[in-house]
Amino acid sequence: MSNDDEASFRYACLELRQCIESIAYAKLKNYKKVVPESQFSEWHPKRVFDFLLEMEPKADKDYHLNIYEEDENGNPKKLVFSGDHKTISLQYIKKNYNKIGYYLHTPTLNKQAEYHEASTKLKRYLDKLVKELEPIIDCTFDSRMGIAAHFNCHDCGQSVYHNLETIKIGKNIRCLNEQCGKIYYVENYIDEKPLVKPIQMKITCDCGNDIYVDQHKVKENTYIDCECGDRYLIDKRWVYRKET
Fold first, then answer.
1. Could you give the count of Cα atoms lying within 13 Å of 170 in the half-sphere of its Cβ?
2. Buried b vs exposed e over 191-211: b needs ≥16 C-beta within 10 Å?
3. Residues pairing with 82 in the sheet
């Protein structure tokens, strides 16, 4: 970036974008033993962190780790490792990953004027990113605490992974396939394994047929058709009540 020209800035954007990808994929490697690599070989950073946060709610948080050797009674005896882990957050990826990518493409005609204006502020923005990412790159360790389990999505067939230690009855689990997004809830446990069911709205038709509509597909002013030919409108109605 010391060259202070547009071509160098654009190359710096590419390097920083790849840097964010490398951080995300390095964290994902912690799950290679429990999740087949074919499942996440083409995931982009946002989806990686969606998965990581499903497995460990604090996966995008910095932390300090001490590891002790234990005595014969299981008590800490000797400190064998101490270190700080630094990482990026899902919010950081949402804010910066696509913004960097914006400068890697030729802007459309109606964006060219503002593109030039944004480019004049680019060096300051890139310098800020470098300072933020540097301590994360220098971090030498990571850890995985969650116990991974999975089931196959009823709609798309892809594996839906979750953390056995944090999942509870009533918790929602979402399929991370961006073309799917089906939402399930944990109904019960059978033989220490969670029984999951899709969250659906039930419409009982006049013909007696029950129509089930996935929650994530329910949208206002859409129609649901029954096999008998009847059609139902999904509508949201405003109500009011007197405050007491």
1. 0
2. eeebebebbbeeeebeeeeeb
3. 66
Strands (E), the chain: 63-70, 76-85, 148-152, 159-163, 172-174, 183-190, 193-198, 200-204, 210-214, 222-225, 231-234
Per-residue b/e over 90-127, b at no fewer than 16 CB within 10 Å? bebbeebbeebeebeeeeeeeeeeeeeeeeeebbebbe
Helix (H, G, I), strand (E, B) or coil at 184: strand
Residue type, 192: E
Q: What is the mean pLDDT of residues 3-23?
A: 87
pLDDT tens digits, residue range 204-222? 999 999 999 888 888 778 8
Name residue, tokens 């007696």. Answer: 208
Tell me the pLDDT tens digit for each residue of 84-106: 999 999 999 999 999 898 888 77
Question: What are the tokens at 111?
Answer: 């964006």
């499903």: which residue's tokens?
A: 54
Rounded to two decimals, the pTM is: 0.68
Residues with Cβ within 8 Å of residue 133, at least 6 apart in sequence: 16, 19, 20, 23, 88
Residue 188: burial class (beta carbons within 10 Å; 0-12, 13-18, 19+): exposed
